[in-house]
Amino acid sequence: MSRRDDRRRRVEDAFADFQRAVSAALGAVAREHRALAIEHAKDMFEFTVRGMGVDKALQDVALKNATPFLTVDEKRLRNPRQAPLSMAEFTERLAQIKHDWQQSYHEWTTSGPDQLTALVNTVAAGPASWPHESWLGTPGTHDGSEGVPELWRIGTGVVTSAPEAAPFPVAVPLLDQAHLHISSTPDGRQHADTLVENLLLRVLSHFQPGLVHVHVWDVGQLTGSLPGLYPLTRAGLLTVHDPARLHELLDELSEHIRQVHTKVLVDGHLTVRAVSGEGRRTEPWRIAVLFGNRKALKEEHQQQLQRVARNGLACGVQLFIVDIPITINSPVETVSSRGDGTASCTMTGKHVTVTLDPALPRTLVPRACAAIADKREERRSRMSKFGDLLPEHMWTETSAAGVVAPVGFDDGEPVCVQLGDTSPHALIGGPSGSGKTNFLYAMLGSLCARYSPSELELYLLDFKEGVSFAQFAPGRKDPSWLPHARLVGVNVNTDREFGVALLRFLADEMRRRADAAKQHEVTKLEHLRAEDPSGRWPRIVAVIDEFQYLFGERDQVTAAATQLLEDVARRGRSQGIHLVLSSQDVSGIEGFWGKSAIFEQFTVRIALPKARRVLAEPANDAAVELPRWHAVINHESGVKPGNEICRIPDSTSKDTMDFLQRTLWKRDPGRAPGLFDGSKVPFLDALPDFLDLRPGDASPTVLLGQVIDVAGSAARVRFARTPGRNIAVIGSVVQDAAAVLGGAAASLGRQHEPHEAAFTLACLVDEAMPAALHLAKRLSADGHDASVIGIDGIRELLDRTAARLQSLNTGTADTPPSPHYLVLYGVDAAQTLLEQKDPTTRTSGVDSLRTVLKHGPENRTHVLGWWRGVQRLKACLPPGVYDDIGAWVAFDVQGKELLSLGPEQVMAWSPRPRRGLFFDRFEHSRPQVIIPFDTGEAS
């Protein structure tokens, strides 16, 4: 290449470098400012060449690409396929350009700086460029909805080759635009620190407190960097990291970037800025300030820092790197600070001297930061109303892919709990008084307001004398109920079997849904709903409060509950069944924590103040210092980067959840939920199973009590004409025995027409007489033949009945067998009397009783008897033969005493007030716990 061609190429290339530099200084401004930026780039090129001289400019290898100034003819200067210009032609062209430069230079010196100042003020309004007197100490109010300043002032620039030119502001792009790399001379570090502090205060003072979080790492000192900003720490806006643990800071930033990509940058968005659009900034910026000592980082830290830099800007992560040599493959602005307070910048080039802004007043900086922290705390402590959790329109959401509900607020933004395929189950922890009930109300209210009962069903269970969910079922004062609730369990106390029953119900429902999914050749609820749009497949959320009591003992209940819980937790997600387990302290639940398959499924962790073992301790201790009315919401199995801290509104006071319930109930009450109240005895006459009984069945059903199950069904015994269809009640408490016998006789009477059946009530203990008389009165009122006898008539009753049964067996009876029920209160009280033998027949009353028990059921005669002990019952039966008592209910009897009458599972039985153990040897493989009915009988 000839010298002339080389000179020509350098002139051609000269302008582009200046154009890019000045355009960058002006930032990625709005489109209407582009033309002005290009014109000023031309001007700066011209007055620079004017100051250097044309000949020197031609020799400067830094000048490149003046293509924008070339005319159509002059394009031959850079087009090798066209004939080159002669030296005379080139000189003539250059002279013309020089003339134009001189004119443009004159225009620049008179108006350029003012235009630049106006432009910077336009794209960097407020604290981004204004003097500190107008903003320092006043917390910002911008939430990002009005745009983000594209430039941030760092100092004042002057053109060294144009001494008459006025100074102009110098600003750098930050936040979503570019990272900042600052290098300093040994005597310029103080000015570098000042630059960092000034920029941070400009950013912090521009935005609403909480939209910017600062992280500081200094390789040389544990504390002391940027001391004026330390008041921000109490509001969580400033975090100072250990100089020996840079990897932890970089890991935290990397994890944050990952979460933003997986949770925020969805639906095709590439940046958080694009997600926010014209609305409020949804994700706070995180500015990481790294102070070095002019030495390179370790190789692994270099690589990790480069990854953060490369991906951080799109996710709101900004790096300020001070005195750390590094090459970043990402937009970065470089400032070189000198000891005299001047600097040079990437954008301004070497012909512009930048005087950095002086340090802000030392006394005002901590005050300003304290004001920002106070404003942040004020926003965090502001009590959002329960109504803010509710949508504008009720029941508009679909639960096909899952359910999402806001439960609290962080700086006015809702924080949600999500239950779906990826986050199937939730674990809530918090000691007494931490606001657990309030949180549950907030979550349930938010869910029920968004999803209709056809989209969401609730099963609510509260252990340990809890009544948190009582209002969701109809009551005497408030007849309304929560339409989504299908089951409400309160005051469960020691009835751990009800928890097992709920889990068994969920497991059965899970299998039912899985079978339906197989028929439609799909695997998950979302697809099943698409294939079967006419079916009813709501999401199910089962909430068990104080669930640790379900695993409180090492027994069969715990074993069954653990097995069922593991099954539902592992497979329920795909069938739309979600568990929400709540506890004061989950640290000692061996049956739960010993099963990794259970533990891993509860990816949603909610920690209330002072909660233990809910988050991933000890690394995540966010709940330790959590203030009241707050919660940590974590969808990442409790690891620290997944924390979202929010304030929970008051959801339990009047006109909050109760008002929402009445509103939804009036809209569509649906079917009232089933209610299990462990503190109440079920009323026989209100039991659906009792009301469904009708005359006409040849094998009437005896109702003995309520089984502890989800349906609230009754314990049944079929009185078929087969051996052993007799019932024994075992225990010493009259009230329990009278309740079982009264419910059994009343249910039998409901299945017979008037005068069809005979009831003989033998009261052999005085304490039972009121109950016997009350039952006789009830049966008589229904048209049945009911008589009451005392202990003096028992022998004659048994002998007469036995004789009739023998005649029926031999075929000598003159009438066919008719229903006859012997209700015996306290049989063992007449044991001595019954053991006496008749002198004539040489038989005793015990023999007659055994005959009635053995042959009565085949002839429609059944015994419903009460014995006050197991041994006393055995004394009335043939030695070692207990088949004539086909069903029994035991109360205050230890399990080991019942072993001869039932299966091995009876060994685990320990008596409880108003609870009985029921076993039917012809129907059951294991006994059931039942609650005797309230029949209205006097005890």
From TrEMBL:
A Pfam family this chain is assigned to: FtsK_SpoIIIE
The protein's name in its UniProt record: FtsK/SpoIIIE domain-containing protein
Keywords: ATP-binding, Nucleotide-binding
CDD domains, alphabetized: TrwB_TraG_TraD_VirD4
Residue ranges of every copy of the FtsK domain listed in the record: 412-617
Record carries keyword ATP-binding: yes
SUPFAM superfamilies: P-loop containing nucleoside triphosphate hydrolases
Residues that coordinate or bind ATP: G430, P431, S432, G433, S434, G435, K436, T437
InterPro entries in UniProt: FtsK/SpoIIIE/SftA, FtsK_dom, P-loop_NTPase
Record carries keyword Hydrolase: no
